[in-house]
Amino acid sequence: MSSIDFLISLPFKLYLMVVLLRFWLQLSRADFYNPFSQFIVKATHPIIGPLRRVVPSMGRFDTATLLLAWLVAIAKIVVLSLLAGYALTNFVGIGLAGLLIVFSEAIDLVIYVLILRAIMSWVSQGRNPMELVLAQLTEPMLAPIRKRMPDLGGLDLSVMVVILLLIFLQKLMGDLFGAF
To answer: Alpha-carbon distance 180 to 174, whole Å?
Structure first.
């Protein structure tokens, strides 16, 4: 049954990451005319566009995008629960589990983007438009760590430090809230 769970949860996970990436792009004010950014916007706009007419933004926070991320997480829980034959009676628990999934997927997304940026820095050397967007997304969290780390002769370990902190945060979430 785990293979079926994987096949069903994978589209939810991928779309949730795309929605969270759109939120992150807006929050960091990344270049929206970049081809990578345009893909993210076009993949999410059919749902977020109409949702924005109903749910207003709160300052820089696009609440419609966060609401969509939460709804995708809840849909994932509902579909997997129905597939497993569980009764859906605890709606508050489902809502809270949806929030935990969104937070956990956001941490996974940041880790994946950091790894992708590190690999692209070795390969593309600044000639890829996607690398610019990844730098705009990750530099605000890497720069403060880079300033505090000693000079290691051109070796940048800030990505590794941030990834280790994020993994610790995920483990801490697992300890506090259990496996979800």
So the answer is: 8
**How many residues does the structure list for the chain?**
180
CA 131 to chain centre: 17
CA distance 84 to 76: 12
- Stated pTM of the model: 0.87
Crossing angle for the helix pair 2-27 and 91-123, to the nearest 10 degrees: 70
| Calpha distance 126→48 (Å, rounded) | 32
- Of the CA atoms within 13 Å of residue 42, those in its CB half-sphere come to 7
61-70: long-range pairs with CB below 8 Å, 24+? 61/27, 62/22, 62/23, 62/26, 62/27, 65/19, 65/22, 65/23, 65/26, 66/23, 66/102, 68/19, 68/44, 69/16, 69/19, 69/20, 69/23, 69/102, 69/105, 70/95, 70/98, 70/99, 70/102
| pLDDT tens figures, 25-40 | 988 888 888 888 899 9
The one-letter amino acid at 43:
A
